[in-house]
Amino acid sequence: MTVTVAAEDPRSDDARALIAALDAELSGLYEPQFNHFVSGEGLAGPGMRFFVARDGSGQPVGCVAMRPYEGFAEIKRMFVAHGARGQGISRLLLDAVHDAARADGFEFMRLETGDQQLAAIGLYESAGYRRCPAFGDYPADSPHNFCYEIRLSPAETMVSHV
């Protein structure tokens, strides 16, 4: 499958549909206090970046966002549609958000994922992410929210995504 990843407006109809599908999936896995949703409007804020993966026919099949913090960037809203999973799209999205973070001068990237998202945990750990303490508004004592971090620079610390 040919897939392209490009920056897009998180308020577009396609972006909203991807975000709604992600919200529905996460709402089925966790109680509300363990979900940390950001809307399309929130993803369009200052310094935010939003990327959409599209298949060869132009259909949206995934998304990811980047939120800047002081000293690091955070991955938000990483999602691949069910019918498109297992085809390397999550790696393409991860590469895009890492490239954007490096271009914006960030040396570290962090993220939060849930304990029920085993495929996501596997993806992040295989890419070189390691568990780290909670950051931002994530609760330090949550049994469901896991935080991860990777050093983006220097580049040789990255695991190849070939």
SS content category:
alpha+beta
Q: Spans of 5+ residues with little confidence (pLDDT < 50)? A: 156-162
Distance between the termini: 16 Å
Structure summary, number of beta strands: 7
Mean pLDDT: 89
Short overview:
With 162 residues, the protein is α+β, with helices and mostly antiparallel strands. 28% of the residues lie in helices and 28% in strands. It is globular.
Topology:
Layout: E1 3-7, H1 13-29, H2 40-43, E2 49-55, E3 60-68, E4 73-80, H3 89-103, E5 108-114, H4 118-126, E6 130-131, E7 145-151
Parallel strand pairs: 4-5
Antiparallel strand pairs: 1-2, 2-3, 3-4, 5-7, 6-7
Structure overview:
- Residues 1-153 form the N-acetyltransferase domain.
- This is GNAT family N-acetyltransferase.
- The chain is α+β, with helices and mostly antiparallel strands.
- The protein contains 4 helices and 7 strands, in the order βααβββαβαββ.
- A 7-stranded mixed β-sheet has the order 1-2-3-4-5-7-6, with helices on both faces.
- Strand 2 and strand 3 form a beta hairpin.
- The radius of gyration is 15 Å and the shape is globular.
- Residues 156-162 have low confidence and may be disordered.
